Amino acid sequence: MENDEKKLSDYIDRLNEEKKPEVHGNSTESPQMEELMKTVRKVRSLKEPALPGADYPVKLAENVAKQLPKKLTVKKKKHTWIAAAAAVAAVIALVFAVNFILHPGGADIVYAMEQAFQEVKAYHGIIEIIEKNAEGKETTQAIREVWADKEGHYYIKELEGSQAGVITVNNGEKKWQQLPQEKKVYVFPAFPDPYRFTFELGNEIDDVKNAAEVKAIGEDKVLNRSVTVLEVTPKGGLPYRIWVDRETKLPLKRESAMQNAIQYTVTYTSIEYRNALPEELTIYSVPDGFEEVDRNPEQWVNNIEEVEDLTGFAPKIPKELPESYKRDGIAVANGMKTVKLNYTSRDKKHRVIILQEKTEGELNPASAAVLGTLNGNVAEIQSPVQEDYGVLAGGGVYSGVSDISSIRWQEGGFEFAVVGNDSLEHLALFAESLAGGPVVIPKGDEKTPDKPQIEVPVDLEIEENDQKSVDAGHSPWKLDPVYVAQVFVSLKISPEGIQGDYPVQYEDIKVVKNDGVNAVVEVSSDTTPIRRVYLKRLIRQDSTGIWTVVGYDPVSS
Amino acid sequence: MIEEEKLKKAHDGDLKTIEEICTLTWEPVYRFIYYKVQNREEAEDITQETYVKAFSYLQKHDVKIEKYIGFLKTTALNILRDRWRKKKRRGSNVNFEEINPIETAVDDAAQASAERTVIREALNKLNEEQRTVIELRILKGYSVNETAKILNKKEGSVRVLQYRALQNLAEILKTYD
Q1: What three-state secondary structure class fits A365?
Q2: Using one digit for the tens of pLDDT, what is the confidence trace for A344-358?
Q3: CB atoms within 10 A of CB A274
Q4: Which of B56, B88, B93 has its CB closest to that of A502?
Q5: Which of B98, B121, B145 is at the close of a domain?
Q6: Contact B87/A24, CB-based, under 8 Å?
Q7: How far is it, in rounded angstroms, from Cα A83 to Cα A130?
Q8: H-helix or E-strand containing A245?
């Protein structure tokens, strides 16, 4: 309750500062809290809005023009077209020639990069980020000082750019961000960490290793050093280039593909390799005059007895750990309700957290989650985590971090979740050890999927276009089978279109089956003519694939 | 009224024309968004996204827009819903994808004015202490510390008071629905 009063007060303060509150667009608040926040906005609407500065329309137009697709912003001149095409052809020919003559393949270089990075313990560098628009105009976006080690600890100081002065640190125990303008230090859990600074060497090399294709396309100089230029084509993305130091075999520069008429070049203008991060940089402190803001404080404890004292229950501990893991700490979070058992792999690349708390109602699986079973109970399986419900909501921010997966279930009056940046199979080992029973993860390859009474014809061409549109960031609701079913049922009730509220509410629709490829939802509203809707991921069968209605069962009369 | 020719140029990405259109239309669009989000940072951000989406849409679809500002507002509404609805499991939803952009014109001025009258009436139904804390904190924008000094209360009491005041206000507003 006290927490809610503070949250509401912080919300009012944020709006008074004319800043976007965190909960906007990412709310995990209770309905009551959302209602109160809505009331704040309503009262505030009596005020005259804060208007932007006089130069806003000009800036707005510039930014809009920048973001329109390239073909729209660059005026085409017919007479230059042939010359441009010839130039492109010449460059392609040259690239091919260089590629074949000098470098038969990029694979050796990728291996060399991996080997070289294994030797690095920590590094210190200055990164410069330059933005180039379609007309070739370059602007420096940011210059930042970076300290990073192989265990995922880092210290970043923004030296120039809109964030100048901001310091972000993750020391493995906690993460914090110091904002000099606001005179505040925001504290976050160390893991999971959605922030990855651009051009972190480990991630960069992983990206190259996992790319669909890597080609060496030439030689160049960066920082007066000889470098090899690689063209990297990621799986499902546009090719980009990286410049790799020929001596150290480590990347120094990266140039993204031109997207939406903008291209970014990131360069280490200096880099040196060290044994460790300077200790003084990773010691947490709040400077004089700064306020500490910790929205989800965690208390670290030494043993299970202390957990019991704080939470009133003894947490379950997995009987056996996967071989490569060790436990490295217990914390209590979410107002002393949630226990977090932390585990780290011995190579320190993977972290897994087991969350547990007393159940507060039934398991309410995320609508886009795959539904499996664990020891006979329903298990919500997300890979990656897209929505934080139940015990996941109390443990930290897991959704929206691309490599985090989770398994969540209820058993014996408790709700558990195993969440981490490891494969679902490894997470399942933790879950099985905890629950003492097998995890069943449906694979979406069943031979006889449920048959609807009435089939809905599908136009694959339209679906492919819809998928492209969603890939570009539009209509994310198509990734949620419940929303897709809600629209479908609502249009059945009002074929002429929907004005105002949907005739069927989101919460009247329950997912009864979802194996990642096929889903069945049940509609419980009194007004619905449809009882069950059958959906399928027709175009792509992973978390980025849209759902399409393929059939339904009418309400039997 | 924006001429057809000008719109076409803007949709083709002509910076000067985009600037002209933004200058002519930004304020009602921005105000409409601000009304929903109640902060400048987000309003500026969504206004920008609105123009990008609207121009991109009109470039791809050969449609005539009679009421341009109405179309922009509907686009803004779509963006707000895209952003907010993913995690929201209740409240009113409009399926924007199904709205025909040609016929769309959000006539919000009258509605907003009626809503404001209701909010004022509801505020007047609160007791004086609760009304004052809401006025100081939300309408005048004082911090908890400043409000506490004005009301001669502790900061914690101000937070409790404003929480209860908003709970009451939300209940009163429900009776108008």
Answers
A1: coil
A2: 888 777 889 999 999
A3: 14
A4: B93
A5: B98
A6: no
A7: 28
A8: strand A240-245
Nearest partner of A548 among A485, A489, A502, judged by Cα = A485
pLDDT of residue A443: 79
CA distances to A96, A200, A270, A419, B135 from A241, in Å: 15, 15, 19, 34, 56
End-to-end CA distance of chain A: 47
Cβ–Cβ < 8 Å for A135, A123: no
CB atoms within 10 A of CB A173: 17
Domain annotation covers residue B43: yes
Residue A365 distance to chain B (closest CA, Å): 12
Predicted model pTM: 0.53
Q: Is the dihedral of CA B94, B97, B98, B99 positive or negative?
A: positive
Q: Which CATH number fits domain A297-440: 3.40.1000, 1.10.4030, 3.30.230, 3.30.200?
A: 3.40.1000
DSSP-derived secondary structure for A43-69: HHTTSPPPPPPTTHHHHHHHHHHHHS-
Taking the Cβ of residue A57 and every Cβ of chain B, the question of whether any pair is shorter than 8 Å is answered with: yes
Pick the last residue of a domain from B98, B130, B163: B98
Total domain count, chain B: 2
d(CA B167, CA B169): 5
Same domain? For B91 and B135 the reply is no
B83 and B129 inside one domain: no
The partner residue sitting opposite A65, judged by closest CB among B15, B40, B94, is B15
How far B175 CA lies from chain A's nearest CA (Å)? 14
Is residue A125 within 8 A of residue A253, CB to CB? The reply is no
- pLDDT tens string A66-89: 877 644 333 333 333 344 444 444
**Domain parsing of chain A, residue ranges:** 2-42, 106-274, 297-440, 454-554
Which DSSP letter does residue A259 get?
Answer: B
Which ipTM did the prediction report? Answer: 0.87
Tell me the percentage of chain B whose pLDDT exceeds 90: 36
Residue B69 lies in a domain: yes
Residue B46 belongs to what domain range?
A: 4-98
Most B-contacting residue of A14, A68, A475 (CB-CB within 10 A), to test interface: A68
Are B73 and B115 in the same domain? Answer: no
Contact B148, B162 (CB under 8 A): no
What is the DSSP secondary structure assignment for residue A86, as one 8-state letter? Answer: H
Give A229's strand partners: A218, A243
Fold of A106-274: outer membrane lipoprotein receptor (LolB), chain A (2.50.20)
List, for residues A42-57, the tens digit of each pLDDT value. Answer: 999 888 888 888 888 8
Q: How many helices (H) and strands (E) does chain B have?
A: 8, 0
What is the rounded distance in angstroms from the CA atom of residue B25 to the CA atom of residue B28?
6
Q: Are residues B169 and B118 part of one domain? A: yes
Q: What is the pLDDT of residues A482-533, one digit of tens each?
A: 999 998 998 888 887 776 678 888 888 999 999 999 999 999 988 889 999 9
Q: A15 in the Ramachandran plot: left (φ > 0), alpha (ψ -120 to 50) or beta?
A: alpha
| Closest residue by Cα to residue B34 from B21, B50, B46, B22 | B46
